[in-house]
Specification:
Elements lengths: L3 E5 L3 H13 L3 E5 L2 H9 L5 E5 L1 E2 L2 E2 H11 L5 E5 L4 H9 L4 E4 L4 H13 L25 H13 L6 E4 L6 H10 L8 E5 L5 H9 L15 E5 L6 H12 L1 H4 L4 E6 L3 H6 L5 H7 L2 E4 L10 H14 L6 E2 L1 H9 L5 H15 L4 E2 L1 H10 L5 H6 L4 H15 L9 H20 L4 H8 L3 H10 L12
Parallel strand pairs: 1-2, 1-3, 3-6, 6-7, 8-11, 8-12, 9-10, 10-11, 13-14
Antiparallel strand pairs: 4-5
């Protein structure tokens, strides 16, 4: 590499490490802990690439980006930041950053980006050319390296019209990411239309895309809307062919839709097996974003847990806090259902526990009560609930040693099973007792009596994304 690199960071150690690495790579380096000094160098025409932190003692590296772009349009600026959120990544992109790396960053990756920026000198290769900034909070939670990759990828595609497929296991947040792409992009004023492929035939899809299905009571989406196909891997062969013809039609093309799709299965594998048409896949999959499972980002569980507790309190449920040791137990659980399962579990704790603080005992007891969380045990017993209950009761007897438990065991066990069953069902229906009674298959009056007898707190809340 050959060029002058301007480094601005208030951390002396980071300045020293970058200076040494860039010098060894063949660059000249000028390093400072001040925005004022950085701007003086830029104003004097010095530097071929800038590496800047966000928070500096005398200013904000992000807020400085528009001024740098006005002064020296082709000067690449790489933002490094400990504020590892999707907002930081998107804001850096929208304000004209060449690239963004979260701290702690991989030094080799940073050097590679500097080399690429030097090679592209004289050309405008910013991630996104878009005026304005994002200042709203998003429910995309996590600062793990895998989520940082998602944020950076999202920042690149946010203001494009490229068809995108979001892949990831059930419960990883594919719907949420699709909504985020719509809500933060230029199509936000238009409709976000979700089409559930598993429950939609081609007539319903066609009616949604181009209309003409008044007899089915289907209104067409407005022009330039975002169309979200949920779980495209569940389409039949006939529906795939019909959808492909529909997407190629002038009627759909003229509507200027942006298509986002999701799949919990590997579409490449389904293509190789002949389950998904390759021509349909490549029409929908110009860009692919993969959401990691929760087991690969356990470092995000503390932030996710606190977020869900805050959301439950905002929706009118009891306000709770959770201890650090309880969070450690959550991090050790398998979470086969990913973020959705964690959210449902936290909501159930809020409903079931009368104490203000969620302790390790609360977490452990309730993890044992929910078979879906103990996936390893369930696999060994072929997923039978009775086997899990049997183990739980056996542990209960073992705790009493040679003595018998107190009388009334039958009703206590039934209540112990009935309480989480009803509480989790209420949580799943967001407190809708009509839906809960239908889900459980019991009379609504019976449900009300059980809620009262079991002292379950019920609050109606909107669905959290």
């Amino acid at each position: 590499m050959d060029g002058t690199i301007l480094v601005a960071d208030d951390d002396r150690t980071i300045r020293a490490v970058l200076t040494q690495a860039l010098t060894r790579a063949g660059c000249k380096v000028r390093a400072t802990g001040s925005i004022e000094t950085l701007w003086r160098w830029i104003d004097e025409g010095d530097g071929d690439v800038v590496i800047s932190d966000v928070n500096l003692p005398d200013g904000d590296g992000l807020e400085m980006l528009p001024a740098i772009k006005r002064k020296r349009k082709d000067l690449p600026v790489i933002i490094i930041s400990a504020q590892n959120t999707v907002i930081t990544a998107i804001k850096a992109s929208e304000l004209g950053a060449y690239d963004y790396l979260p701290k702690p960053f991989d030094l080799k990756k940073l050097l590679s980006k500097v080399n690429k920026a030097l090679s592209n000198q004289g050309t405008n290769n910013n991630i996104i050319q878009q005026d304005g900034a994002v200042d709203q909070e998003l429910p995309l939670i996590g600062s793990s390296p895998l989520m940082q990759d998602v944020y950076r990828f999202l920042a690149r595609v946010l203001h494009t019209d490229l068809s995108t497929i979001i892949t990831g296991e059930s419960g990883t947040g594919k719907d949420l990411l699709a909504h985020t792409m719509h809500d933060l992009g230029p199509r936000a004023p238009m409709d976000f239309v979700r089409i559930n492929i598993s429950s939609s035939n081609i007539d319903k899809i066609e009616g949604t895309l181009i209309g003409g299905k008044e007899d089915l009571n289907i209104s067409p989406a407005s022009k330039s809307s975002t169309i979200y196909f949920d779980e495209i891997s569940e389409m039949s062969d006939e529906t795939q062919l019909q959808l492909l013809d529909l997407l190629r039609s002038d009627a759909v093309i003229s509507k200027n839709y942006r298509f986002i799709s999701s799949s919990r299965l590997s579409l490449q594998n389904l293509i190789s097996q002949g389950i998904i048409r390759e021509d349909l896949f490549y029409r929908l999959n110009v860009v692919n974003i993969n959401l990691p499972p929760l087991r690969d980002r356990v470092g995000d569980i503390p932030d996710l847990t606190k977020h869900f507790l805050q959301q439950s309190a905002l929706s009118g449920m009891p306000k709770k806090v959770i201890s650090a040791k309880a969070i450690q137990l959550l991090q050790n659980a398998p979470w086969a259902g990913n973020i959705r399962e964690l959210e449902n579990f936290i909501n159930s704790l809020v409903v079931l526990i009368s104490d203000e603080e969620i302790t390790p005992i609360h977490v452990e007891e309730n993890l044992n009560l929910i078979p879906s969380v103990n996936s390893n045990e369930l696999d060994a017993d072929n997923g039978k609930l009775s086997s899990s209950v049997e183990k739980h009761i056996k542990r209960y007897f073992d705790l009493h040693g040679d003595n018998l438990p107190p009388p009334g065991l039958y009703n206590r066990i039934l209540k112990e099973i009935e309480l989480p069953l009803i509480a989790l069902s209420l949580s799943a229906t967001r407190g809708n007792q009509i839906k809960t009674s239908e889900l459980l298959g019991i009379n609504r009056n019976t449900l009300r009596k059980k809620i009262k007898d079991l002292d379950i707190v019920v609050t109606r809340s909107k669905k959290m994304m």
